[in-house]
Amino acid sequence: MKEGKYMDSKTQIIEQYFKLSDLASNDEQALHEIIQLFSKRAVVKGTNGFIADNPTRVAEFFKNFFKDNQELRHLFHVVVDDGNYQAEWAVAGRKRSGRIFAFHGFDTYQFDQQNKISFLKVKLEK
């Protein structure tokens, strides 16, 4: 695994995704910006088996996620291995119900030629 101190544009996009994720529950603009990170043909696979495979479903996925999660704080680490982008993350948050939670997992990303996210798979560690 190769990790440099430099940050390529795809790594910066992933960092932006996590930074916006901490804001999007209470910030309509941040939510809009997250959705804009994804290509029109993006596929998002959520941890619950939900698959969003068109722009409307991708937008719905994120709107519902940030409506259900009222407050989020992510720590993350991006690893680039032979052109493959993965982020290990931990998140603490508060559900709309008030319940507090913490999860640890991995995201796998693919990008199109325009540096838009074309594929995102979210996996929780058990």
Blueprint (SSEs and pairs):
Blueprint: H1 9-21, H2 28-36, E1 38-45, E2 51-52, H3 55-68, E3 69-81, E4 84-95, E5 100-111, E6 117-124
Parallel strand pairs: 1-6
Antiparallel strand pairs: 1-2, 3-4, 4-5, 5-6
Helix pairs in contact: 1-2
How would you characterize the overall build of this protein?
The chain is of the alpha+beta class. It has a single domain, classed as Nuclear Transport Factor 2, Chain: A (Roll). It is built from three helices and six strands, in the order ααββαββββ. The chain has helices spanning 9-21, 28-36, 55-68, and strands at 38-45, 51-52, 69-81, 84-95, 100-111, 117-124. The protein has a six-stranded mixed sheet with strand order 2-1-6-5-4-3, covered by helices on one side. Helix 1 packs antiparallel against helix 2 (28-36). It starts with 8 loop residues before the first helix and ends with a strand. The model is unreliable at 1-5 (pLDDT under 50). It comes from Paucilactobacillus hokkaidonensis. This is SnoaL-like domain-containing protein.
Please outline what is shown here.
By secondary structure, the chain is of the alpha+beta class.
**How far apart lie the N and C ends?**
24 Å
> Could you say which overall geometry the principal axes of the C-alpha atoms support?
globular
CATH class: Alpha Beta
Helix and strand sequence: HHEEHEEEE
Radius of gyration: 14 Å
- Main sheet record: 6 strands, mixed
The count of strands amounts to 6
Which CATH architecture would you pick? Roll
Share of residues in strands: 35-45%
Percent helix range: 25-40%
Classify the secondary structure makeup into a structural class: alpha+beta
